[in-house]
User: Which sequence fits this backbone?
């Protein structure tokens, strides 16, 4: 299952939009955080494409909780671990972390 999710995340990263972080849900899935742009049209198109490929459509709502890096899930007791992080795509300078 993770291999399939990782393949989709890699496709998005290489072909569509830079990936900032990949994290384990603490249950059974991987979640990707991608770089956002100032252009809302392109952000919307990206989101629609991601939903077609399995992203949670509920994340469109600003009030929807999303996975938090390194948090512990209450229902499983497992850590939502960061598997991969790219600080340059997150808008950070490498000396900031």
Assistant:
């Amino acid at each position: 299952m993770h291999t399939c999710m990782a393949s989709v995340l890699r496709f998005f990263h290489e072909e569509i939009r830079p990936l900032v972080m990949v994290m384990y849900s603490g249950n059974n899935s991987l979640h990707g955080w991608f770089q956002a742009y100032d252009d809302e049209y392109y952000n919307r198109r990206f989101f629609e494409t991601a939903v077609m490929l399995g992203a949670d459509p509920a994340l469109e709502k600003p009030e929807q909780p999303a996975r938090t890096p390194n948090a512990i899930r209450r229902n499983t007791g497992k850590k939502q671990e960061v598997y991969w992080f790219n600080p340059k795509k997150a808008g950070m300078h490498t000396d900031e972390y």
About this structure: The longest helix spans residues 2-16. Residues 71 and 96 are 21 Å apart (CA to CA).
